[in-house]
Amino acid sequence: QVQLVESGGGLVQTGGSLRLSCTASGRTFSNYAMGWFRQAPGKERDFVAAINKSGGSTNYKDSVAGRFTISRDNAKNTVYLQMSTLKPEDTAVYYCNKFPATGAWGQGTQVTVSS
């Protein structure tokens, strides 16, 4: 069972930036595409971005394309989400998981964007 630990969230003003990290346990990280997801208060968890096994291909939710960048370091079992030009509607708990999402979720990391 892969365990996922997200970090890097915080409180930021509109227009600011944050870099999220997600570290996975185990030795099979490079075998999986990975994704970032988010859950805003009162809403269902939603897809944000995904990256293939090698890191050579990415895709994004329309509302974050051009502002967010997903990347990965397979040597460190870590996937990143660089978020720029943040908006209040980006406020959510952010999670990583395999893509498509399977298995247990981590605890997530809270991102709050103040207006």
Structure description:
This protein has 115 residues and is mainly beta. Helices cover 0% and strands 48% of the residues. The protein is built from no helices and ten strands. A six-stranded mixed beta sheet has the order 2-10-9-4-5-6, with no helix packed on it. Strands 1-3-8-7 form a four-stranded antiparallel beta sheet, with no helix packed on it. A hairpin with a 4-residue loop joins strand 7 and strand 8. The radius of gyration is 13 Å and the shape is globular. The N and C termini lie far apart (39 Å).
- Largest sheet features: 6 strands, mixed
Beta-strand percentage range: over 45%
Query: Given the helix and strand composition, which structural class is it?
Result: mainly beta
Kindly state the mean pLDDT as a whole number?
96
- Give the strand order, joined by hyphens, for the main sheet: 2-10-9-4-5-6
Terminal Cα span: 39 Å
Proportion of residues in helical segments: under 10%
Shape descriptor reads globular
Query: How many whole angstroms does the radius of gyration measure?
Result: 13 Å
Number of strands: 10
Number of helices: 0
Sketch the topology as an H/E string, one letter per element. EEEEEEEEEE
Low-pLDDT residue spans: none
